[in-house]
Write a structure and sequence with these properties.
The chain is built from 4 helices and 10 strands. The protein has an 8-stranded mixed β-barrel. The longest helix has about 55 residues. With about 260 residues, the protein is an alpha+beta fold. Strand 9 and strand 10 form a beta hairpin. The radius of gyration is 26 Å and the shape is globular.
Length: about 260
């Protein structure tokens, strides 16, 4: 073998080894990133699976006194509250992913990153503030939830931007431990606003002040709804891509008539 041929052979072998090691390193790095991605998604998958399980175990539909089967849906609050006594209610919007326990704790943001059982999960829970009436008897009750990309929690609410979805998904159902039938709220307005603005008021000076606030929710959502001073309002609030802005959905109590 000539000296030139020898050096060519050595160079070829070195380049071959370099390519092999480069390939191995790329595979190893890719595996690390895939593992990291899987780990980051695991809590969301776990939350989704847990919710499927408790829906199967703790919810059932039965015939009742009304023609609306969703009003008659039964929630096993006794079982749920054994897991976590902070479970105060259940929210359901038919034909959407919104079908969750509602949590209430003395600390307002306690369930921002905790699941229904109180364990850490970045998806959090649907929750209400400590000052809110757990029986939804206040003039204005607000529920909060994350805007998840996969539609979990309140991720589906942004679909109300399309007014056709207000018509096709008109009702929000709230189930309470002490009630045989659900509270049914009719969606009438949806819009984007800044956090901690007038939309989030829950205390009003008098009936006139409350009526003015009601009219604001109608106007901001460009809605066609005539609200009465005695109407109770439910607001669902979730985050947007902008850190300071929120997407809100308003519903007016529609059933039972005697409590409007």
């Amino acid at each position: 073998m000539t000296a030139g041929a020898f050096f060519v052979t050595v160079f070829y072998r070195e380049e071959t080894m370099k390519r092999k090691w480069t390939g191995r390193i790329c595979i190893a790095v890719s595996a690390v990133f895939l593992a990291m991605a899987a780990c980051s998604e695991l809590p969301y998958w776990k939350n989704s699976e847990n919710m499927k399980r408790i829906r199967a175990e703790c919810t059932r539909t039965q015939a009742g006194e009304t023609s609306d089967p969703d009003l008659e849906r039964q929630i096993d609050f006794a079982a749920l509250q054994k897991t976590n006594p902070d479970i105060a209610a259940w929210i359901y919007i038919p034909d959407t992913p919104v079908d969750y326990p509602v949590l209430k704790n003395p600390y307002d943001d306690h369930y921002l990153h905790r699941d229904y059982a109180g364990e850490y999960n970045p998806a959090g829970s649907i929750f209400m503030r400590a000052a809110a009436a757990a029986d939804f008897s206040g003039n204005h009750t607000i529920l909060y939830g994350h805007n998840m990309i996969d539609g979990q929690m309140f991720g589906w609410l942004k679909n109300y931007r399309d007014v056709e979805n207000i018509s096709s998904h008109p009702y929000i159902y709230i189930y309470l431990p002490e009630r045989k039938q659900a509270l049914r709220w009719q969606v009438y307005s949806a819009y984007q606003c800044h956090d901690a603005t007038e939309t989030y008021r829950t205390v009003f000076e008098d009936a006139g002040d409350y009526k003015t606030w009601q009219e604001m929710t109608v106007r901001l959502g460009e809605a066609a709804m005539e609200l009465k001073p005695e109407d109770r309002i439910l607001t669902l609030s979730t985050c947007t891509d902008s850190g300071s802005e929120r997407y809100t959905v308003h519903g007016v109590l529609q059933f039972p008539e005697t409590e409007k």
